[in-house]
Amino acid sequence: MKLFHTREYILNRSNRLRPDIATFPGIKISRRGAMVILLVMAIGSASFITANKFATDSMTEYRMARSEADGFRAHLLARAGFNGGLGALKKIPEEVLYQSGIAFNPPPVPLGGGMIFYKLSPEDGKINLNSLIKLYDNQPNARTQEMVYRLFEQLGLKRDKVFPIIDWIDENSQEMGGGAEIFYYSGLKPARKIKNAPFYTLSELVSVKGFNRKIVYESLKPVDYDKNRSMNFKTEEEKVLVTDRDFVLANNVTAFMPYKDTADERINLNGAPYHVLMSLSDFMTRQAAMRLLRLKLEKGGYIKELRDLENLPEFQLKTAGGFTLYKELAGEGTDVSGGRIKTKGDIYRIIGVGTINNNVVRRVSCLFDLANDQMLYYSED
Fold it and tell me: Measured between alpha carbons, how far is 174 from 90 in angstroms, rounded to an integer?
């Protein structure tokens, strides 16, 4: 019997009997060493998590800073476009603006790493809803009211929708027709405050009883309109002169406060869409409206003088007062001071737009009173 062992055997056996020694193939680690290794690994993991979170937060802050920088650049481009439109409006004769074809809405121009463009549109070719109430005595304006009646009928809206607008604008608390005053708006959930003052912008109309964004800003064209008015029987001129844009309420009405006491309720013929023309008089016919639009095309896009309408057969129709349609609209020889129409535009909407990388967009817009060289409204978004 072998009574002795080698030195290596004795050492290995003694190590296995000691709990503070960990053995691995070729490696001997004490319990304290193992704890140190685990602690180092934990610290490394925590450091990695912290570094990863810091990197994520830093990237988020970078993206935010980049977004703000791009937004600022787009805003500067929008301001440049706005100033370009304002300069064009002030320096280029109105007749040239209309006749140039693209002066009101030129193509975008690359600038500063983005795109810049502006758009001009005559706002006094629309019906100003604020003129439903006479500013000097806070009483309903019958002539504007009749025009809005006719416009609503053209667009398939009920006539009595005009009454909530009047109640929203006038200063009293007496409901007019099917209108709405403080009792109606305070009962809404959530409650809404009636303004009892003129509109500041047309966007306020969506807060008025009976109106919403769809009615104001989307097409009111009847679904079966084209079917009932077959395209086979519409002339090429009609296809060009009456478009889907004409069926949007916001393209037919506006809302602004005139500068001081310079209110002018006349409609600018050069900026008036088809349905506004049809709303000018009970005696306005489709033939007369289309003839006026064709005359505008014949004149290169701009009617300079009202007298260009005087001898047109479509405007010789007799009205209830015994006047011709032309005289009723122009106000010549009638008791209507100033008439209902004009050819010189005074109020223009200017919109400047700047874009960066096609996904950052900023817009600057205003209503500008060209006759008084005054800004009536200004916004940035």
Answer: 44
